[in-house]
Amino acid sequence: MTYQTINPYTNEIVASFDDATIEEVDAAIGAAHDAFLSWRDTPFSERTAVLAKAAALLRAEKRRYAELLTLEMGKVIGEAEAEVDLSADILQYYADRGETLLETIKVPVAMTSEGEVEIVSEPLGVILSVEPWNFPYYQVVRVAGPQLLAGNTILLKHASNVPQAAAMFDDLFERAGLPAGAFKNLYLPHDLTEHVIDDPRVRGVALTGSEEAGSIIAAYAAKAVKKSTLELGGSDAFVVLKDADIDKTVEWAVFGRHWNAGQVCVSAKRLIVVDDVFDEFIAKYRTGVAALLMGDPMDAATTLAPLSSQGAADKLVIQVEKAVASGAMSEKLGAKAPAKGAFFQPTILTGMDSSNPSYYEEFFGPVSIIIRAKDEADAIAIANDSPFGLGGSVFTKDTVNGEKVARRIETGMVYVNHPTMVKADIPFGGVKHSGYGHELTNLGIQEFINKKVIDVVDINAAF
Ligand code: NAP
Predict the structure, then answer these.
(1) How confident is the model at residue 251 (pLDDT cuts 50, 70, 90)?
(2) More exposed terminus of the chain, fewer Cβ within 10 Å: N or C?
(3) Closest ligand 1 atom, residue 135 Cα
(4) Cβ < 6 Å from ligand 1: which residues?
């Protein structure tokens, strides 16, 4: 069985679930399509009421929802509660704005003979949402919130290690009053993914995950001529300029690299520090990282969680070994990781440059690549020397210059004096190998919409 809950703190199997059969998959597609035919015409007031109710349920039962996240993928309980809040915020964002995000646009035309032109927004149909385990609720809501508001319906294929978090959404949306079939979690085996995407009733696919999975799923969508969005990996640059407030910057760097145990697409994975402040920064960073406390993620005192699985921890060990074999220097920090569980000892990698193949890889865990830059221009060049283009940040007391530097960084998002943020009211998306398309806000809701042009011409107008 592919779908299993394995507690990463103990490595014990908690529960296993059968893969969906092709008959179950076809039935779910049929139900999602039938639900779409009425949901698309359901008044916005009813759609927003469902989203608001789902948000309220998440908030009311925050602890229960949070504990499941900590059990299934190991994140510390405080971060799990914050994820539940963030997911509720996203649902509420769309509940509050409703129809205003999809208002009909009048198109000004030069001649009366061109008619009255408008652009109306219509949902496409059933959307397949393929999501990763690192934020098991937030990732789902990022797609489901806007797309349900838009009138689309959703089939969810969640990561195989968070099956119970995935199933929570069937229950949540049912209790919130969503019609049957409009959202369905499927324990979809990989070999049925193309079958789903090929089905004419399925009109698009939104994937968040690795580059590898993204290119496979997007190829299925392209073959079937369907819209896809890809939110993929990243290796965010965290640029420290010579006038940065080093103490505060170090605090953000330690947080930015280690929250969610470093398993965030927008983690500060490459710390690029200009020569003038490099030695001070790295000394203070070592101290900050060494102070992180590994332990039971259910314990509020724990500040560094285990990784999501033993497999993820083992993969990271090999990745660090390869980086070292190609010339990097590795330094382990802090108290020794607990012997049991999927823990990974926080590690700093220095001496990395473009001659090391690992330099261009994403390290998904508490591994910090620290790079010395000659000056600001060199720091920008290093930041842009990456196949990824997701987020990034610049630390400086001169925010005017910070904004200028931000404009020169080739990513989808750049923050000045903050690691890349994840908020309900800020759009999210990357470029280059980090994917295409946007999620959240008014940008995210447009991704699976037919922007239909309607032109009403007066038959009596001159030719
Ligand atoms: P992953 O292996 O690509 O898995 C993501 C999802 O894709 C899972 O549901 C997975 O299902 C599914 N999947 C993978 N291969 C598939 C295939 N051939 N057919 C059908 N489904 C397939 O990613 P991950 O390693 O779990 O997640 C971490 C990656 O996601 C990192 O690269 C991270 O940076 C990225 N990420 C990006 C964002 C963003 O917004 N840009 C956000 C979070 C994470 P199974 O579990 O069944 O394999």
Answers:
(1) very high
(2) C
(3) 43
(4) 2, 130-134, 157-160, 190, 193, 208-210, 213, 216, 231-234, 265, 362, 364, 390, 430, 434-435
Backbone dihedral angles phi then psi of residue 272, each to the nearest 5 degrees = -110, 110
8-state DSSP, 208: E
Predicted local distance difference test score (pLDDT) of residue 113: 80
Sort strands 12-17 and 329-332 into parallel, antiparallel or unpaired. unpaired
Active site residues: 231, 265
pTM (2 decimals)? 0.97
Kindly tell me if the per-residue pLDDT of 25 is higher than 90. Answer: yes
Query: Do residues 243 and 418 make contact, with C-beta atoms less than 8 angstroms apart?
Result: no
pLDDT for res 461: 77
pLDDT of residue 1 exceeding 70: no
Closest approach atom of ligand 1 to CA 265:
34
CB-CB contact of 301 with 295 (8 Å) = yes
CA dist., res. 172 & res. 140, Å (int): 12
DSSP code string of 148-190: HHHT-EEEEE--TT-HHHHHHHHHHHHHTTPPTTSEEE----G
- Could you tell me the end-to-end alpha-carbon distance of the chain, in angstroms, rounded to an integer? 67
Is pLDDT at 463 greater than 80 in this prediction? no
The pLDDT of residue 316 is above 80: yes
Pick 111 or 100 by higher pLDDT: 100
Looking at residue 462, its pLDDT comes to 67
Positive/negative CA dihedral, 216, 217, 223, 225? negative
Strands 431-432 and 347-350: unpaired
> What does the block give as tokens for 212?
């590898």
Domains of the chain: 3-232+434-454 (3.40.605.10), 237-416 (3.40.309.10)
122: number of Cβ within 10 Å: 14
The Cα 143–Cα 100 span in angstroms is 18
